[in-house]
Structure formats: C-alpha cells, structure tokens
Design goal:
Its cofactor is Zn(2+). It catalyses: D-alanyl-D-alanine + H2O = 2 D-alanine. By secondary structure, this protein is an alpha+beta fold. The protein has five helices and seven strands; from the N terminus they run E-H-E-E-H-E-H-H-E-H-E-E. The longest helix has 16 residues. The structure holds the ligand C[C@@H](N)C(=O)N[C@H](C)C(=O)O and zinc ion.
C-alpha cells in the first residue's frame, strides 16, 4: 500500500530491506504495541528513503542487509512513551532494556525524546543482518538497550561488536545520515526535508 504524502513506503522502494518493526508488536521496551503503528509497514520521507536504499545497495555486495526496527514515528507514539513513563515498572522489561535507570529518567538521560527526530520522517533505528537467515550482527547490546554500553564510544564491548558498529556507522554516514552518540542504532538524515515538523499521521 502506498504511503501518504510526504512519505515513501520502504518495502516498496527497497524490497529486500528486512523489517522487524518493534513498536508494531510487543517485543519492545514498553512490552506492548505502541499507538500509531497500525500495520507492519515503515515510512520515510523521499530523500531519507533514497539514502537508505543506497546504504542497502552497499551492504548487498557483501551478502548483508539492513534490518529496520523503526523509521517514521507518529507523535502519538511518542505521547504513548511519555504516558508509559508514569506507569508502574515491569522488572523483567527493566532488566532487559534499562537496568541501571528509573524509567522516568529515560527522557532526561537522552534515550527518549518528547519531540523525537523520528516524527520528522527522516530518522531510522536499524542494524545489519545476514541476507540468508536474517541473523543480526553482534552490536554489543540489544536494540533499545538504554545505558552507556550503547554509546558510540563504549569500549567495554567485544572487538567484533565494535567493528560491526563501525561498519554500520560507515555505511550510514556515507549516504548522508548522522549517528546519535547514545544509541548505536539511531541515524538522522543530515539534510532532512522537514527539520521543524513533527508529523502525527498513523501508520495504517
Ligand atoms: C526509543 C529509541 N529507539 C529512540 O529512538 N530514541 C530517540 C532518542 C528518540 O526517542 O528520538
Ligand atoms: Zn531512534
């Protein structure tokens, strides 16, 4: 299904892009589907989608693929995260995703944003996986692990995981994306077309 303007449906533009859209289902840090993700599809603005297509083209040459966790994020999803911060803590999810933090501090510490770059439509959360089985490269932490182990300059992860992170940075920055210091998986297009707009169109 074609995405509404100004978005491009990534499965249509990049058919071999692997999609594991964590906020559509419950396999995420809040343990539930997130508001605004009504179908397992991912949207980006045209220039961000084209840049992602180029990055995928680079990796294909090595039998590797990008695996996408999130792209455009409606503002109502961010509002869901904000409400979740004021609900009782689930110890099992805390142990997996933010073991050393109180969930109410995730915004102040920079791991969540009340006005997320994702809502501007040119930001992605992603990793690298094999093209055959979709096995993810070891990046040292799980996606959405909120702690210093996910920072770009963390040196307590294995040399292989550091090399894998560097490969992801190299492929993404070569195509115009800027990495985010606190989260190895998060990249924003440098010349994004809507730097001041937070969209709230549900992904349906
Ligand atoms: C929640 C995480 N995947 C993320 O995208 N964090 C950044 C800081 C954001 O919320 O914009
Ligand atoms: Zn992100």
């Amino acid at each position: 299904m074609t995405a509404p303007s100004p978005f491009v449906d990534l499965a249509e533009l990049i058919p071999d892009l692997q999609l594991d859209l964590r906020y559509y289902g419950s396999d995420n840090f809040i343990g539930a589907p997130v508001d605004g993700y009504e179908t397992h599809r991912a949207w980006l603005t045209e220039p961000a989608a084209q840049a992602l297509a180029r990055a995928q083209r680079q990796l294909r040459r090595f039998d590797l693929s990008l695996k996408l966790f999130d792209a455009y994020r409606p503002q109502r999803a961010v509002d869901h995260f904000i409400r979740w911060c004021d609900t009782p803590c689930d110890p099992a999810l805390k142990a997996l995703y933010y073991p050393s933090l109180d969930k109410r501090d995730l915004f102040g510490e920079g791991y969540l944003n009340r006005r997320s770059t994702h809502s501007r439509g040119s930001t992605v959360d992603l990793t690298i996986a094999s093209t055959d089985a979709g096995t993810e490269l070891d990046m040292g932490t799980r996606f959405d692990f909120f702690g210093p182990e996910s920072w770009l300059d963390c040196d307590s992860i294995s040399p292989q995981a550091r090399a894998n992170r560097l490969l992801l940075q190299k492929v993404m920055t070569a195509e115009g994306f800027i990495p985010f210091h606190h989260e190895w998986w998060h990249f924003t297009l440098r010349d994004e077309p809507f730097p001041d707009t937070c969209f709230d169109i549900p992904i349906a």
